[in-house]
Amino acid sequence: MTRPPAAHRPDEGVDAEIHAEAHHKTREARRTELVEDYVELIAELIDRDGEARQVEIARRLGVAQPTVAKMLKRLSEDGLVHQRPYRGIFLTEAGHRLAEACHSRHEIVEAFLRAIGVSDAVARHDAEGIEHHVSQETLDAFARHVAAQVN
Fold first, then answer.
1. Which of 26, 41, 60, 75 has CB 3.0 to 4.6 Å from 80, enough for a Cys bridge?
2. What percent of the chain has pLDDT over 90?
3. DSSP 98-112
4. Is 145 contained in some domain?
5. Coiled coil: which residue ranges (predicted)?
6. Local structure of residue 2 (DSSP, 8 states)
7. What's the gap between Cα 114 and its chain centre?
């Protein structure tokens, strides 16, 4: 594959440190994405069922129960969840705050996508990935755009 001319390469001339920072932020977002997905799902299950169970988390995420157990251990060590013997998984206060922030980001991204003409189903699906990688500045711009559409 041939490289496009310099005029068509968006990163041409970009400072190497700025370029590296962008990649660092993307890698960090990928690391936190899984944690956020688990916390958001646990909050959803608690709202629906009163508690979240490991078997239901595994089913909803399409992973094996040992995978869920490993992540729950990490979430517990990070102070986001606590488990009770023979009961479900519950969010700590920090876990609740993270779940609410994730849910809010998701709603803003999804509303923005719908506002620019993306179908409901695609907006819901795409928001799931975008929400973890969007900067606060971009999220604020999405929110302003959605608010302007409503008014």
1. 75
2. 65
3. HHHHHHHHHHHHHHH
4. yes
5. none
6. P
7. 18
Write the single-letter amino acid at 27: R
**Using an 8 Å Cβ cutoff, are 54 and 89 in contact?**
yes
Contact between 130 and 109 under an 8 Å Cβ cutoff? The reply is: yes
Residue 104 lies in a domain: yes
> What pLDDT, on the 0 to 100 scale, is given for residue 62?
94
Q: Which pLDDT value is given to residue 39?
A: 96
Instruction: Record the pTM.
Output: 0.74
Residue 21 makes CB contacts below 8 A (sequence gap 6+) with none
pLDDT at 78 over 80: yes
Q: Is the dihedral of CA 116, 119, 124, 129 positive or negative?
A: negative
> Residue 32's Cα: distance from chain center in Å?
8
CA distance 25 to 29: 6
Going from the C-alpha of 105 to that of each of 36, 53, 71, 132, the distances in angstroms are 11, 25, 22, 8
Structural domain boundaries, residue 25: 17-150
CATH assignment at residue 132: 1.10.10.10
Count of domains for the chain: 1
**131, HSE (Cβ side, Cα atoms, 13 Å):** 26
Residue 1 lies in a domain: no
